[in-house]
Amino acid sequence: MNSSPARYSRSIDWITVLIYLLMVGVGWLNVYAASYSPDAPANPLSSLSFSELMAFNWFKQIVWIGAAVVLIVVLLVIESKAYDTFAFVLYGGMILLLIVTPFIARPIAGSRSWLELGPMRLQPAEFAKFVTALAVSRYMAGINLRQQNFRDQLVLAGLTLLPPLLIIAANETGQALVFGAFLLAYFREGMSPLILLILAAAGVILILALLVPKLWLVGAFTLILGGAFAFNSKLWRHHLPLSLSVWAVVIGMVFGVDFFFNNVLQPHQRKRIEVLINPSADPLGVGWNVTQSKIAIGSGGLTGKGFLQGTQTKFDFVPEQSTDFIFCTVGEEWGWLGTLVTIVLFMTLLGRIVYVAERQKSVFGRTYGYCVASIIFFHFCVNIGMTIGLAPVVGIPLPFFSYGGSSLWSFTTLLFILLAIDAYRKQDLERY
Amino acid sequence: MQYLEGRKYVVQAIFLTVALVFAARLFYIQVLDGSYKLAADRNTLQRIVQTPYRGLIYDRKGQILVQNTPVYDLMVVPREVKQLDTARFCQLLQLPVEEVREGLKAAKAFSRVKASPLVQNLSTPELAAIQDNLIDFPGFSVKARMARSYNTHTMAHALGYVGAITPAFLEKPRYAKYQPGEFLGITGLESYYEDQLMGRRGVQYRMVNVRGIEKGAFRGGEFDTLSVAGQDLHLSLDSELQEYAEKLMAGKRGSVVALDPKTGEILVFVSAPMFDPATLSGKGMGNRYMELLNNPERPLFNRPLMATYPPGSTFKLVNELVALQMGVVTPQTGFPCNWKLVRCTHRHEYPSNVGIAIKQSCNPYFYQVMRTAVMRGRSTNRFEDARLGLAEWRRQVMQFGLGEKLGVDMSQEKKGLIPSSDFYDKRNGYHRWNFRTVYSLSIGQGEIGITGLQMANIMATIANRGWYYTPHFVKGIGQGGPLPQFQVKHTVGVDPIHFEEIIPGMQSVVDGRGGTGNNASLLDVGISVAGKTGTVQNPHGDDHATFAAFAPAEDPKIAIVVFIENAGFGGSSAAPLASLIMEKYLRGKVAPWRHRWEEWLPGPAERFVKHH
Question: How does residue B507 score in pLDDT terms, banded at 50, 70 and 90?
């Protein structure tokens, strides 16, 4: 600490902190509602012992939030240069942890990804996010994406891909997909927009291939390409090989979807995508989650059923109601206004993070800021998307809302490292 | 690197796009699409319906007719049936194997997890025989329910019956509150007074969780209602008199309706052939219903309400009253018994006044009465004159409650037909018909159609000298009186004086020397009866016999119509039957010398429907 606490405190971005506290507070209310039981004692805090209280998710969440506050203080007190300096060390440690986790963890819900420390369970994959974010930001600070140094790009890709591969090996595909979000941060730092476009196009083609008969798709694409050549002779001369290879790749993808679908994806993953296209395909299996989650949210109406009045979430129709499907409680009890407020909260936070990231002097700080925004955004997209039937059911939490220590702490860490870096930058400015 | 800063807008645009898509999608599923709310209620709300105790039915004298007794349904949950020992099971229930197999198949088709009835309407002794052994058959259980039981073997047509609601009923808005498998009145009073008899269901809303375990009352029981027992019905029917009338009508086809003219209360209501009301209740009810339905004598046909016949000579009274009211004839008007106009019933004295005409039931006389009433010279064109005249005549006639439903408290009632000018315009063509076309109406023949109940109501109206209360079966609901519409006095637009002018003629029909209704005379016990015989020409077979009367003539207490199909002349079959019922009602007993009438069966005896 190289200056007075008062000055340091002034340089913290309190707006972000405020949004964070709001989200955690609203999140806790919904965790309370989701785990509330009318049979419980009227005044549990005074009538039950600590260990009895720890049987309730809402109480445990209070403990996790308390711990998160301690964590925040620690994160802000640490000399922020340390994040820069020790980024690779942390990364190395994380990789080691991810490698050993499957060997020392007990299997829980089909995956060996949870480490047990006394009463707590931690998921290293959660923390891999901010560690990887730190490492790639640190590496990014030393290279220039625009200069197309192939070796640098390869290293960056490797840094980004190694943790998710290890996570997939531990059977936590959902957490691994999150690392795709780093592309947004790389895009800001100069990655060619073509990569984003190609990925988006690939996504569209994959979805179309599942929805539309394949021959139609091939025919339509061929017609479009052929039409472009017919009207533009320049294309014919200069871009024929490229165009033909794009055509071949697309055709390959269209027909490869089935192979990917049947041979690469695991049966439960395949189900999740089938259900997305047709929720009634498996009404009591994966479709159950989607259907019940939509029913819970949809039954909320404009203003909701009121706090603690939700029936779908309370009576266990919605699975994982306090963790992955916490958004159902928001939707059922607070209605569209509640879900809208939640979305606005996320948009405000993301906008603020982008603002904070943009005011960083260092590439490290800015890249890290974008990584934070991208990761939170990815969780937001996939989590809410799956509860309303727009994304496949992927078991990832809603940041700051979902019940659970691991997820709360990892997002808190992710966010407050950014605030620590930001605060340090401001102090730097003040000093000169 | 300045140009890269612009990319922050791209990133933020991506964020915003997703947020907008989510907000729009949420608006759709939360606000616009109501189906999720319904689905949520289906998920959690369990509706527990408490069926109230159905109202009882009493007769005029407070004797209980219809009550509730517990019966038991053997229910089956197909999924829970394990290794059924079919042979032993069938032996226990004393049912053929095929029936049990069919029942199980139907239950499976309905639901594998919900209970559906396998055998319905087991009586308490039948239950006792199987209950102890039922424990060996998992998946089977017994559900208690209340069913109708009867303290009378009579008035099946009036009482109607109670049965399980059918899919066709469920679609009607009136029965929106009913659930499949519930019971309700299907016909007769059980159906008309369904709302009163049913009472109010108690409904409790329970919330259940995903495993079907109760989680307490929905919103603290805010929407729960207590059941309210149904109201009792107090009928105006006299069960003793009804039983007597049914005994007299045994083996015949036709109807008897007797009213208390002062109140419109129905005292006797017989539709022959009859059946025991218990036939349509209890175990095997479905089969018995089919037997009744397929019986060529059509015992289920509610004749007094649904059979419309040309009323025959009894209608001459209405014809005369209308003409008197119009002022086109007087009681002293005489018309020759001119057989060229229409054939008369028999050779008789010159009908020099209405009294003789009624007594002799002179067809040409009433032909001329109606012609005078219809052909008023409103137009020089005789076709147009007939059109205008018939329309005016019809308006008057319909005031007697004819050609329209009277509005009795039973839904099967038919309107009957008083043909209009339009009717003949359509049938014969405009200006293609005249009085010669419609004259049959004057003697109650031809296109005219009247129900037994309407005929009885005419008698009540004459007895009252010009007014009636709508006939009804129920004189008291619960602690209250009849429905309000039965407390409204209707007048028929004919001056009381004109009734006094025809009643002596009706008395002479019964009590005068050589009257057509001498068989109905009760003069020997001091009661003067006013009546009118009728013989309805039947193109399909023997003529139908009718007799309509009221007594005592000076202070009428009963008005009655007896209609016997294919029994020929009304004076010889219908009249004595009517007199027996009237005497029994007025005196409480029948003079010994008239008991011979009771055994007299004018109808073909082989047409006998099994009767208690």
Answer: very high
| Mode of pairing for the β-strands spanning B64-76 and B450-451 | unpaired
A384/B22 touch (CB, cutoff 8 Å), yes or no? yes
Residue B21 C-alpha, separation from nearest chain A C-alpha, in angstroms:
10
Least CA distance to B30: which residue of chain A? A298
Give tens-digit pLDDT for B338-392.
999 998 888 888 999 999 999 888 999 999 999 999 999 888 998 999 999 999 9
> What tens digit of pLDDT does each residue of A364-384 get?
999 999 999 999 999 999 999
Q: What is the pLDDT of residue B319?
A: 94
Interface of B with A (CB under 8 A): 1, 4-5, 7-8, 10-12, 14-16, 18-19, 21-23, 25-27, 29-31, 33, 35-37, 39-41, 43-44, 207-211, 215-216
> Quick check: A347 and B16 CB within 8 A?
yes
ipTM score assigned to the predicted complex: 0.89
Say whether B366 sits in a helix, a strand or coil: helix
Quote the minimal CA–CA distance from A74 to chain B in Å: 31
Question: Which residue pairs from A100-105 have beta carbons closer than 8 angstroms and sit at least 24 positions apart in sequence?
Answer: A101/A170, A102/A169, A102/A170, A105/A170
